[in-house]
From TrEMBL, chain A:
It comes from Chitinophaga agrisoli. SMART domains: Ald_Xan_dh_C (SM01008). InterPro entries: Ald_Oxase/Xan_DH_a/b (IPR000674), AldOxase/xan_DH_MoCoBD1 (IPR008274), AldOxase/xan_DH_MoCoBD2 (IPR046867), AldOxase/xan_DH_Mopterin-bd_sf (IPR037165), N-heterocyclic_Hydroxylase (IPR052516), OxRdtase_Mopterin-bd_su_IorB (IPR012368), TAT_signal (IPR006311). PANTHER family: ALDEHYDE DEHYDROGENASE. This is Xanthine dehydrogenase family protein molybdopterin-binding subunit. Residues 204-282 form the Aldehyde oxidase/xanthine dehydrogenase a/b hammerhead domain. It comes from the Bacteria. GO terms for molecular function: oxidoreductase activity.
TrEMBL record, chain B:
This is (2Fe-2S)-binding protein. InterPro entries: 2Fe-2S-bd (IPR002888), 2Fe-2S-bd_dom_sf (IPR036884), 2Fe-2S_ferredoxin-like_sf (IPR036010), 2Fe-2S_ferredoxin-type (IPR001041), 2Fe2S_fd_BS (IPR006058), Beta-grasp_dom_sf (IPR012675), Diverse_Oxidoreductases (IPR051452). The lineage of its organism: Bacteria, Pseudomonadati, Bacteroidota, Chitinophagia, Chitinophagales. Residues 4-78 form the 2Fe-2S ferredoxin-type domain. The keyword Metal-binding applies. Keywords: 2Fe-2S, Iron, Iron-sulfur, Metal-binding, Oxidoreductase. One of its GO terms (molecular function) is 2 iron, 2 sulfur cluster binding. SUPFAM superfamilies: 2Fe-2S ferredoxin-like, CO dehydrogenase ISP C-domain like.
């Protein structure tokens, strides 16, 4: 293959003009002699693009794929500006490479938002290189050349050449600066539907996930961890485990014991045979303890409010009516369908890491710090993930894999049992929210007090609506320290704030005789005309989705036996509004449909976006209905799907989604459709039954459901 | 430990394992077929669904010793070219998000469609509610099953 390899390499960096000062690594490789009869050669145009002499275009997908669709959507952005035929595009997942890529992150619904400008730039730069190569070859003005689906044309002379034919020359051309981006109106790929790139492999079982990783000499490992939060390991007896079939080693690290062997099941069985003694190393708390302690904490205000507009004392003093309510939020685990796992091979003073991680760069930094490996001796390859939802923003399972590989001196794949995964922490934090609002004699909302506590740093999103629309507003939060680990869970904090605040707004609307949709629109009009303090959202875009969702659901038209509930939320720079339509069918409350309007700017991949929004709504609905992890003396009470309920097909209602059409740069989408749904449902239940649900999971509110015969929502 | 001869996707495998080892782990760790997924280990999520003589079973809860001469088919063996009507319908409907549960969903649906080639919505709900999808792709799964069912009878 000497004629098909590359012998010259130099690295250039160009600024991505619209990328907020980001640099895209541009790697240049030029082949010396393209093979005349051998396999197609590949020319690397930049860190994102390789073009084969056979015309196939390889586009790199640098961001971790957790099911949010970025492995398809991000290359669509490059392909659009590069101007190629999508059918000839091959997508390759990129390993962690901080020289070439800037944000290899799956989190904060930020992949498309932050990649939009630099990825367009990368595609447009590639296209211009190919145009310049053609113009140089034909001795014509590049400006007189056009491109279409991987071909450069010079219409005046009738000349044309494919990207494949031009690739070798293009790779030797100087990097063009100030390349022109397409007018969004002329997009041919962005804004269309491209099915999930890995679809064929997924439906045929060929797709590899981290848990499928197997290497020569690799050992499977499973880990025995403290059964309760707040416990440490005293001693253990592994004599029985070591004698079991397929077990090759048992090692201890931190407060954990790893069992290694030739198969997953054998090490899982052997782990059960470990006799360990644990001791309490802190307060072992139960669910009821949190409830009591949260109440105690909220008896006082914190030293400093998170946000303070006007003066709530004055606001409440001038109230014609005061509305108060408390909302409780339970712990919930992530429950990714693929349990935590990671492959690690400590070797040659470094480590190879391979597996499902939303933050590969954080993984490398954490492992470098903790195990004292030089960063350049750590490689991280991200696999397609069987769900993330925030759990894989953590690196605990990678730290385990490295520790075990180091101790056992072998490549290992550490695989968690479902029971370990569910009881392994980093939950959505348990919290308690208290709201108090004042309205004046004209039913105008004049004061709003948010006072909350939870097992997390900040239980509020203090600059969110209705902040900006209320003259006197204060947000006070407390962090409750606990041995239970918490972390981001899809649409962190938003997922619960939206439920509690949007339900509370519904309470205000009902107690003042206002239409809930009208109340929100009035507040937004106020935030636009006369904004109070810092306002993150655009009141017009917010109002537009509210109106659209209301229109879709026929809000305001009375249909007998049908009850509507409204919820909306702004998160990750996107706007979502939803209406849940409940029907009383022979004494059973049933969700007919959920309507949703979303504004996330330009939609890159329609089918992918629709899938995200559908899934987020069903996900949000399921967790609001059924999700709760309780603890008894620090020990989770639920360990598997026999005791922890996830939504199933028969409970998933039809959904109708509308994306607002505009040419605003794209914003978040993996999360924003989740937060409003719980409020929309609880508000619909109120409309149907007059019962206000102030805690999740809803299934526990027997008083509501017992009103109906065999109620199933 | 005991030796078992298994037929998986028309190929013969010989494994020397504990008779209690669930079929799932024989398929994954010994036959090296990783398309069948581990989700819960207690037959609650359906990710591990395979066919035993054409019938969908949860491979995580069936000991290898109980297989005998029954033929095992996994997602890799559902069709020769990945063109089972359900696989094609899944592609047309663009069902998966993360994709992890989808092999189990397809295997479950394939078995059920053989008995009920033209299911009602309620029948699909009932037959598919043993398979969890944490991404919430249920509506697309249902649509894909309806699409495949329209395509004709399934043998």
């Amino acid at each position: 293959m000497s004629n098909a390899t590359m012998n010259r390499r130099n690295f250039l960096k160009i600024g991505a003009t619209a990328g907020g000062g980001l640099l895209i690594g541009m790697e240049w490789l030029a082949a010396c002699h393209p093979g005349a009869s051998g396999p197609a050669t590949m020319q690397t145009l930049n860190a994102f693009i390789r073009i084969g002499t056979d015309g196939l275009i390889t586009i790199m997908a640098p961001n971790p794929e957790i099911g949010q669709g970025v492995k398809t959507a991000l290359p669509m952005i490059v392909a659009e500006e590069l101007d190629v035929d999508w059918k000839k595009v091959i997508i390759e997942q990129a390993a962690l490479d901080t020289d070439k890529y800037t944000r290899q992150v799956a989190g904060g619904s930020g992949s498309v938002k932050s990649s939009w400008a630099p990825f367009r730039q990368a595609g447009a730069t590639g296209r211009q290189l190919l145009v310049n190569a053609a113009a140089d070859k034909w001795k014509v003005d590049p400006a007189a050349c056009t491109t279409e689906e991987g071909v450069v044309y010079h219409k005046a002379s009738g000349k044309k050449a494919t990207y494949g034919e031009l690739a070798e020359k293009a790779a030797t051309m100087p990097v063009p600066k100030d390349v022109k981006l397409k007018d969004p109106k002329s997009f041919k790929i962005v804004g269309t539907s491209k099915t999930n790139y890995d679809l064929k492999d997924i439906v045929t079982g060929k797709q590899k996930y981290g848990i499928d990783t197997k290497r020569e000499g690799m050992l499977y490992a499973t880990i025995v961890r403290p059964p309760a939060f707040g416990q440490t390991l005293v001693s253990f007896d592994d004599s029985a485990a070591r004698k079991m079939n397929g077990v090759s080693n048992v090692v201890r690290f931190d407060n954990k014991i790893a069992v290694l062997g030739r198969s997953t099941w054998e090490v899982m069985q052997a782990a059960k045979a470990i006799k360990a003694e644990w001791k309490d190393d802190g307060t072992l708390e139960s669910t009821d303890d949190y409830k009591k302690n949260f109440e105690k904490t909220l008896a006082k205000l914190p030293d400093e409010p998170k946000r303070k507009d006007g003066n709530i004392k004055k606001g409440f003093a001038g109230a014609a009516k005061i509305v108060e309510a408390a909302y409780e939020c339970p712990f919930i685990p992530h429950n990714t369908m693929e349990p935590m796992n990671f492959f690690a091979h400590v070797k040659d003073g470094g480590v190879e890491l391979h597996g499902p991680i939303q933050l590969p760069e954080k993984a490398r930094n954490t492992i470098a710090d903790k195990f004292k490996f030089p960063k350049e001796k750590i490689t991280v390859m991200t696999t397609r993930m069987g769900g993330g939802f925030g759990r894989r923003l953590m690196t605990d399972f990678i730290e385990e894999a490295v520790a075990v590989s180091q101790l056992a001196k072998a490549p290992v794949n550490v695989i968690w049992k479902r029971e370990d995964d569910m009881s392994g922490g980093f939950y959505r934090p348990m919290a308690l929210y208290k709201y108090k609002a004042a309205v004046d004699a004209n039913n105008k909302l004049i004061a709003w007090h948010h006072h909350s506590v939870g097992v997390t740093g900040n239980t509020a999103r203090e600059n969110n609506f209705p902040a900006g629309a209320v003259a006197n507003l204060q947000v006070d939060t407390h962090e409750y320290k606990s041995p239970v680990t918490t972390g981001p869970w899809r649409a962190p904090i938003h997922n619960y704030i939206a439920y509690s605040e949007e339900s509370f707004l519904d309470e205000i609307a009902h107690s003042t005789g206002k239409d809930p949709v009208q109340l929100r629109l009035e507040l937004l009009a106020q935030a636009k005309a006369n904004p109070v303090g810092k306002v993150d959202y655009d009141a017009d875009r917010y109002a537009a989705v509210i109106k659209k969702a209301a229109e879709m659901a026929g809000w305001g038209t009375n249909k007998p036996g049908v009850y509507l509930g409204f919820g909306s939320h702004f998160s990750f720079s996107s706007y979502a509004a939803q209406v849940v339509e409940l029907a009383n069918v022979n004494g059973q409350l049933k969700i007919n449909k959920i309507y949703c309007a979303i504004d996330c700017g330009i939609v890159v991949n329609k089918t992918g976006a629709m899938n995200q929004a559908e899934g987020a709504m069903i996900d949000g609905l399921g967790h609001a209905m059924y999700g709760e992890l309780t603890l008894t003396k620090g020990k989770p009470d639920q360990h598997n799907y026999d005791t922890y309920r996830l939504i199933r097909m028969r409970e998933a209602p039809p959904v109708e989604i509308h994306f607002m059409e505009n040419t605003i740069d794209p914003t978040g989408l993996g999360e924003p459709a989740l937060p409003p749904v719980a409020a929309a449902l609880s508000n619909a239940i109120f409309a149907a039954t007059g019962q206000r649900l102030r805690s999740q999971p809803f299934i526990k509110h027997e008083e509501v459901f017992s009103m109906q015969k065999k109620t199933e929502v | 430990m005991a030796v078992f001869n298994l037929t998986i996707n028309k190929e013969d495998y010989k494994v020397d394992v504990d008779p209690q080892m669930p079929l799932l782990w024989v398929i994954r760790d010994f036959a090296g077929l990783t398309g069948t997924k581990y989700g819960c280990g207690i037959a609650q999520c359906g990710a591990c669904t395979v066919h035993l003589d054409g019938t969908a079973v949860r491979s995580c809860s069936i000991p290898v010793s109980s297989i005998g001469t029954q033929k095992v088919v996994t997602i890799e063996g559902l069709s020769e070219k990945g063109d089972h009507p359900l696989q094609l319908a899944w592609e047309e409907t663009d069902v998966p998000q993360c994709g992890y549960c989808q092999a189990g969903q397809i295997m479950n649906a394939a078995s059920f469609l053989k008995d009920k080639p033209h299911p009602t919505d309620a029948e699909i709900d009932n037959m598919m509610s043993g398979n969890i999808c944490r991404c919430g792709t249920y509506n697309r799964i249902k649509k894909a099953i309806q699409l495949a069912a329209k395509g004709g009878d399934h043998e």
